[in-house]
Design goal:
single chain; 9 helices; binds BIS(adenosine)-5'-pentaphosphate; Rossmann fold; five-stranded parallel β-sheet
């Protein structure tokens, strides 16, 4: 085998080890339209850890018309938050799946101070005290976006109902209008992406989710990234934060 090929193979394997190491819990925080869902999917692919999106989990309940879905449908369509205990139950159930062992990315959770306190204690008891991880507090990446851009991002959003790929008619359009590049499905607009509802969601973020950032700021766990930048640059910033945190936040199993 040539030296160059050997080096390339070594490089590839150390890269794989690097990416497959323990990552721990990551929280992506930011207002509606900041890019949490978009970036979560990219981070998931990079580190091969699952995305846990409470918005997606709740929308699935609505779509399947489960008893919970029926209960929360109207409230979500108005842009209000679902009650803490319902969301925490869903998250607890999801975080007990085996695929979260190396870490996971929380998108849309925690969203209230109560949820943040609940999460800290859940992670402590389920991951730290069981000896799985050497630390439990999440690293919180806060995506900052200019307020005036958020409205355009949300009204321009289109999502693939099959694989969840997120597009934007202004900044990240599909190759063919309204059709998913990957599977050809017709793209959909979310029920809560209407202009009158968006205001309510942005207000809910200011009122109820800002205290989450404050909670983690007091614990020195928050790093801001500039979400106004192009998608690849935002992803690179988040990867830098996670890489920097990974070694200190999580011990080896
Ligand atoms: P949820 O689904 O969590 O929605 P959200 O927080 O309002 O956030 P969005 O999904 O609107 O935005 P995003 O930040 O993911 O942006 P995206 O990547 O799509 O919650 C929905 C509802 O569920 C809530 O209102 C509530 O009712 C309920 N809920 C959920 N979690 C809950 C909880 N924990 N407690 C209680 N209730 C809960 O990007 C937006 C657009 O911008 C896309 O079109 C994208 O292509 C584009 N874009 C992204 N990044 C860039 C960039 N860098 N440059 C240009 N365009 C970009």
């Amino acid at each position: 085998m040539s030296v160059i090929l050997q080096r390339e193979r070594l490089g590839a394997s150390s890269m794989a080890e690097q990416v497959l190491r323990n990552i721990g819990p990551i929280v992506l925080l930011g207002p509606p339209g900041a890019g949490k869902g978009t970036q979560s999917k990219r981070i998931t692919e990079h580190y091969r850890i699952p995305q846990v999106s409470t918005g997606d989990l709740l929308r699935e309940h609505v779509k399947q018309a489960t008893p919970l879905g029926v209960q929360i449908r109207d409230l979500m369509a108005r842009g209000e938050l679902v009650s803490d205990h319902l969301v925490c139950d869903i998250v607890a159930w999801r975080l007990r799946e085996p695929d979260v062992e190396r870490g996971f990315i929380l998108d849309g959770f925690p969203r209230t101070a109560t949820q943040a306190v609940w999460l800290d204690s859940f992670l402590k008891f389920e991951f730290f005290e069981t000896g799985k991880w050497a630390a439990w507090l999440p690293i919180v990446v806060c995506i900052k976006v200019d307020y005036n851009k958020l409205l355009l991002r949300i009204t321009g959003r289109r999502t693939c109902p099959v694989d969840g790929t997120i597009y934007n008619v202004y900044s990240n359009p599909p190759l063919v209008d309204e059709i998913c590049d990957k599977d050809g499905a017709k793209l959909v607009t979310r029920d809560d992406d209407r202009e009158e509802v968006i205001r309510e969601r942005l207000d809910a973020y200011e009122r109820q989710t800002k205290p989450v950032a404050e909670h983690y700021q007091q614990l020195s766990r928050v790093v801001d990234v500039n979400g106004d930048l192009p998608l690849d640059e935002v992803t690179a910033s988040i990867v830098r934060v996670i890489d920097h945190n990974a070694e200190s936040a999580v011990g080896s199993n």
